[in-house]
Specification:
The relative contact order is 0.09. Helix 9 packs across helix 12. The chain contains 27 helices and 34 strands. It has about 950 residues and is an alpha+beta fold.
Length: about 950
């Protein structure tokens, strides 16, 4: 701690939680305050641009590309009050300590604070990777200067993303749909998910068979008496397994040299082997040794939290942030697997205490990371301090989410310093000769763990749910060569090849890391962005691309392939790393990317003339209709079936080749004007995955699951009666009349008689004595009768067609029933929440279905259904809702006209101040009021005129 106790120091951190923890470790001479995150950024839209820059050609970008890529930074509106407070505090102290996170983003926040506050007192940078008393006091005692190389790297990333988003996104607006966004990393991440879905769509399943034998040792045996073995060879030829088939044809790969056994062949061979002697032909035994896993880095923490805890990337990072800020773990955005000497000593002590000395290796373990150009210099993620607190010690301090994540981190850290798991593995070959003289070879493998070592503390999970756990044992009898065996059972077993698994957030993060794309601080935001933009949706843990993603990725692949090239995107990350290391200038990097350079690689954006030229020159070559068409297949009648991405969502279209008329591109991203002139159309229901559009599914949709279907002709008008599907569900139409299907009806089973009945709605039941018509109709909340402005509900949909005038008048004469109805039973009981251990149910609410644990409610999201929602998804939704806290109640509007007018004028005055420079004071008060009112009206209308700048704000992504 500094020796001058009389001086006062202002310590600025990002969050109030972090400020609260740190303030407890510092003396009375310190004031700890939060900046509330980022304080400045590039303008979000035209309204954010200061008046003196509005006329500049580069104001839209917020970056002066012609003058060294100078960025225009503005203080975020929701940070102005906090900046005023920090400025006041900075004037009252002797020193300012900037204690933001020690990665690039934290360094940039520190720099922005200096540029914004402009303190007159000395400014120092204090860094730490854990929030403990010892670490904070050491950081205060050893401050440093702001690292401009780290700042330049972060600012280059920010400007790069702005250039990419603001230049490429407008192409998507014109050719696909308005409001879409492109991002340097988000577009590549979306492409990875789309490519996997394409593989699934092209996949053709293959069937193959083998024989599973249950073999037994004759007489007494050491170990288990029986075991299972699988047919692996027939007359010397290897039996085909799943890896031997082409995924796109379902046929055996050329040159595979395998025996493809079908059902008849497998059953026949099993019958011919029945009762035949089996003999061990080979026994291979090897020692088994497995080293511990490295401590967690950001990506592996997200992967394991997803596999074991079913946390999303955002949920993991949000929970880890709380653990870090409250002093329980070290900094959670890192790609370093290194542990400090203090941490290694703490882990080894705890292993000896909890698992015994024999589980502590003679020498400490030190790990080397596989991540190239590790961005952060701090440690792996581990429990904080020089003595690790066990999960049990913290059980009463942490929430359910925090406890589970802390336990995961603690176990992984402890395991990383434990001894190897050792044992033995054995491979056995057994042969039998059939009654027809065929040689059949069977294989079996076993594994025995004699010393679990680190497996006592931690076992890593796999993305493959069918994969065997590493601590699982498969014990075989002690077998020797030429030992006879008896077949207790021979079962012919069929298998089908499976399409490649969809990505989960965990496996997508792993893929991005392996490709060298993205960095620890960006993984969670990438996962959130591709889902928030509508490019990807989740079903359970699986990530499924939307048809919109297919259109966007297809456009970028065909016309801007370099922008979504994996190697190019990874190379850009490496260049940003070089800027952070002081080996490359940010301006040179940005100039090369935006304007082009001969110094770039052969397939780089720089060598192609730069981003600006690439986007401008290629725009006219892009055919919107082609981009928004995803071919599926040609059906049995020779019609081409495609998915069109239309203005109001995706739909199916089928037509004979060449029969479709030329369509004029409207240029707004929707289908061309005469796109549906020929061919059938059917909307695609929400939540259908692209690979599920098989010929059978498409046929079903066209038959009545969502397409148009002619039921017949109206007997009175002669006009066709057509079953259609609209935005609000299925309906029938004939001429000018339309009527939605009742809740008890389905498109598949609707008859002509039922359609004619529906077209009578609303039905005139009769005329009351006062001459008013009494109607029976079906509404949003069910069937009802109406006279004038009086409504009464009917008990059933059948009454729509049977209720008489007298019955209707009796209902209308009765008082409205306002008593509470009996609580409806839940739509579904889901089980116990793994976090809170409370029972979860799905109920039907006023605004749709929602999941609840009795205290917290969370509405189902778009694409989710009560039937398909998983327990893990429900738990995550409620956890996110709890983390946000209670929704603030809206203030009741004041009824007094005078007060309302005053509020409007005050609002208008504020708007006028923000929009225009201050004007000279008006001579008369009345004139000032009129001017203010006029400004308010103009301000209200402005957003409609400024649609393009506002859309530009949505174009950008952090990556």
């Amino acid at each position: 701690m500094p020796s001058n106790a009389r001086s006062t120091r202002l310590v600025i951190v990002e969050s109030p939680a972090k400020a609260k923890t740190i303030s407890g470790y510092l003396g009375p001479g310190y004031v700890v305050e939060a900046s509330l995150g980022h304080v400045r950024d590039l303008p979000r839209n035209a309204d954010d641009v200061p008046a003196k820059y509005k006329g500049e050609s580069w104001a839209r970008l917020g970056v002066d590309v012609d003058n060294g890529f100078a960025a225009l930074y503005v203080v975020s509106p929701d940070r102005r009050q906090q900046i005023t407070k920090l400025s006041r505090l900075a004037k009252e102290v002797d020193e300012v300590f900037l204690a933001t996170d020690e990665d690039r983003e934290g360094e940039a926040i520190a720099w922005h604070l200096v540029e914004t506050l402009k303190p007159k007192v000395p400014v120092k940078r204090m860094v730490f990777h854990e929030i403990t008393r010892q670490a904070i006091q050491a950081a205060v005692a050893n401050p440093r200067e702001i690292d401009r190389d780290l700042v330049d790297a972060q600012e280059a990333r920010r400007i790069l993303d702005r250039l990419y988003g603001y230049e490429v996104s407008p192409v998507l607006w014109r050719k696909v749909r308005s409001g879409l966004s492109a991002g340097r990393v988000q577009s590549v991440a979306t492409r990875i998910v789309v490519e996997r879905e394409r593989q699934r769509m092209a996949f053709r399943s293959a069937e193959y068979w083998d024989i599973l034998a249950t073999l037994a040792v004759r007489g007494a045996a050491d170990g288990p008496r029986s075991f299972s073995a699988t047919l692996v060879a027939y007359n010397g030829d290897r039996i085909a397994t799943g890896k031997d088939f082409e995924p796109t044809t379902g046929q055996v790969k050329p040159g595979a040299a395998v025996m493809h056994l079908d059902e008849a062949g497998a059953r026949g061979l099993a019958a011919r082997l029945d009762g035949r002697p089996f003999t061990v032909t080979r026994v291979d035994e090897k020692p088994y040794r497995r080293r511990p896993y490295a401590p967690f880095i950001t990506s592996t923490l997200q992967q394991e939290a997803a596999r074991k805890l079913r946390f999303s990337s955002q949920q993991t990072m949000r929970t880890a942030q709380r653990l870090y800020e409250n002093g329980y773990i070290t900094y959670m955005r890192t790609d370093s697997v290194n542990l400090s000497e203090t941490a290694i000593a703490a882990a080894r002590r705890q292993i000896a205490e909890l698992y015994g000395e024999r589980n502590v290796p003679p020498e400490p373990r030190r790990y080397t990371g596989k991540v190239k150009n590790a961005q952060e210099a701090h440690e792996a993620i581990r429990p904080a301090g020089d003595h690790f607190r066990t999960p049990g010690e913290l059980a009463n301090e942490l929430s359910a989410e925090e406890f589970r994540l802390y336990e995961l981190i603690w176990r992984r850290t402890i395991a990383s310093q434990m001894t190897d798991a050792v044992g033995s593995s054995v491979s056995v070959r057994i042969r039998a000769v059939s009654s027809a003289g065929e040689e059949a070879d069977f294989g079996a493998t076993g594994k025995t763990i004699t010393e679990p070592g680190f497996l006592r503390a931690y076992v890593e999970s796999s993305d493959d749910e069918n994969a065997e756990a590493e601590d699982a044992e498969r014990r075989l009898p002690n077998l020797v060569k030429d030992q006879p065996l008896t077949a207790e059972e021979l079962a012919a077993t069929g298998h089908h090849t499976q399409p490649p698994s969809r990505y989960t957030e965990a496996s997508l993060v792993k893929s991005l890391e392996e490709l060298g794309i993205g960095r620890p601080s960006t993984y969670a935001s990438i996962m959130a962005t591709i889902q928030d933009r509508g490019y990807v949706f989740k079903r359970g843990q699986a990530l499924i691309p939307s048809f919109l993603a297919f259109a966007v990725v297809g456009l970028l692949e065909r016309h801007y392939p370099r922008l979504v090239d994996y190697n190019f995107t990874a190379a850009m990350e490496n260049e940003l790393d070089e800027i952070a290391g002081g080996d490359h200038a940010a301006v040179d990097f940005l100039t090369s990317f935006y304007f082009g350079s001969e110094m770039g690689g052969d397939k780089s954006v720089a060598r192609s003339g730069g981003l600006k030229k690439m986007v401008t020159e290629n725009l006219s070559e892009i055919d919107a209709r082609s981009v928004n068409s995803i071919p599926l297949f040609r059906d049995d009648e020779g019609r081409d079936v495609v998915v069109r991405v239309g203005r109001y969502g995706p739909y199916l279209q089928r037509s004979l080749p060449g029969a479709e008329p030329a369509a004029r591109d409207t240029g707004d991203g929707g289908p061309p004007e005469d796109a549906a002139a020929n061919g059938d159309r059917a909307p695609i229901p929400e939540g259908v995955a692209p690979d599920e559009l098989t010929p059978e599914k498409v046929h079903e949709l066209f038959l009545g699951g969502g397409g148009e279907r002619k039921l017949g002709e109206h007997p009175e008008t002669g006009e066709p009666i057509v079953l259609k599907s609209g935005r609000f569900g299925p309906y029938v139409s004939s001429g000018e009349r339309k009527s939605s299907l009742l809740r008890s009806q389905s498109p598949e089973s609707l008859t002509m008689t039922e359609a004619l009945q529906l077209l009578t709605l609303p039905r005139v039941v009769g005329v009351a004595q006062d001459g008013a018509e009494v109607l029976a109709a079906n509404g949003r909340y069910g069937p009802y009768v109406k006279r004038g402005d009086e409504y009464r509900s009917l008990e059933s949909e059948e009454q729509l067609f049977t209720v008489t005038l007298d019955q209707a008048l009796a209902l209308l004469a009765a008082p409205k029933t306002r008593q509470r109805r009996a609580a409806a039973p839940p739509l579904r009981e889901m089980g116990t929440d793994p976090l809170t251990e409370k029972p979860l149910v799905i109920k039907d609410g006023r605004f749709g279905p929602y999941v609840t644990d009795g205290e917290t409610n969370a509405s189902l999201r778009r694409g989710q259904t009560p039937e398909a929602l998983t327990l893990e998804e429900a738990s995550e939704m409620l956890a996110e809702k709890r983390a946000k806290g209670p929704t603030p109640r809206k203030r009741a509007a004041k009824k007094t006209a005078a007060k309302k007018t005053t509020a409007k004028k005050a609002s208008a005055k504020a708007t006028g101040t923000a929009e225009t420079p201050a004007k000279k004071a008006a001579a008369k008060k009345t004139a000032a009021k009129k001017a203010t009112t006029k400004k308010a009206t103009t301000a209200k209308k402005a957003p409609a005129k400024k649609a393009a700048p506002r859309a530009a704000a949505t174009a950008e992504s952090t990556d």
